[in-house]
Design brief:
about 280 residues; alpha/beta; Rossmann fold; 6-stranded parallel beta sheet; 13 helices; 6 strands; globular; disordered N terminus; disordered C terminus
Length: about 280
């Protein structure tokens, strides 16, 4: 797929344990404002993981670069949620001339030491990282108990606003396969290598305009605090009625913020309508 200056592609990369459905509420709002949204599913997160050398996020950034190249995309904006945010930021660092702007939704990159304040600290779970990284543990305990494993994380991380039951069901179903479990654990067990890559980025922060979106009942202002060690140009936003999923829990305010940010940062967009 080729692009022209009027296409204004926006590449959206979701995280764990959700699917492209995470972006569904945003797509018509982005389209109505003159953008071309392009949802991407990272290997193993709702699609087979075949063909990737590892789940190290720098390797996945290279995979994404190649995927976008095959689509004919040479200039675009990035929106990344959760692990998709880490991959998106590393891609922006590797391709500064290609990325207009970047939006990071609910992600603190590996190795970035920032505290999640209340009320997010009272709701966002901390058990899943150590559990997923412990060799052999999830492999023994999760099969046959996917509702408890994924359902508990989705319920806790969404905070009091919650997620629609049908949405939670679709996410659990998408991850109830042996390869999905293996891949999801791989995303967490690459942490030592991911920390090396993120600390290297700290030594040479990106200058790409970056919008940090946090949910009040999840990472909140810690998203922007962490990104300020990695980017010289960070705009912060906290959505007051969201947990870990602002694009789903507050789609209109999220879309408005993303569209206004991109309109102010991408060439030739100042006269475009917003939501």
């Amino acid at each position: 797929m080729g692009t022209s200056p009027t296409d204004r592609p926006v590449v959206l990369v979701h995280g764990w344990p959700v699917t492209e459905l995470h972006w569904q509420p945003l797509l018509p709002l982005l389209q109505a404002s003159g953008f071309t949204p392009i949802p991407i599913t990272l290997p193993g997160l709702g699609r087979p993981a075949a063909g990737v050398p590892s789940f190290r996020k720098s390797d996945l950034a290279k995979w994404l670069r190649d995927d976008l190249s095959r689509r004919g995309l040479t200039r675009f904006s990035l929106v990344g949620h959760d692990w998709g945010g880490t991959v998106a930021l590393l891609l922006a660092a590797a391709m500064p001339a290609a990325v207009n702007a970047i939006v990071i939704e609910e992600e603190i990159l590996p190795g970035i030491d920032v505290d999640v304040p209340a009320p997010g600290a009272d709701h966002y779970p901390t058990w899943h990282g150590p559990f997923n990284r412990t060799p052999g543990l999830a492999e023994q305990l999760v099969p046959g108990r996917e509702d408890a494993y994924y359902g508990t994380f989705l319920h806790q991380s969404a905070g009091p606003p919650g997620l629609a039951p049908d949405t939670v069901r679709s996410y659990i179903d998408a991850y109830t396969t042996s390869d999905a479990l293996e891949a999801g654990l791989g995303y967490y067990r690459s942490r030592p290598d991911d920390i090396i890559d993120v600390r290297r980025l700290q030594q040479s922060p990106i200058h790409t305009p970056t919008l940090a979106i946090g949910g009040r009942y999840a990472m909140g202002p810690a998203v922007a605090a962490g990104l300020r060690t990695l980017s010289t140009d960070v705009t912060a936003l906290v959505l007051d009625h969201s947990g870990h999923y602002p694009a789903e829990q507050e789609p209109v305010p999220t879309a408005q913020a993303v569209i206004e940010f991109l309109n102010s940062r991408v060439e030739g967009t100042t006269d475009r309508p917003s939501v």
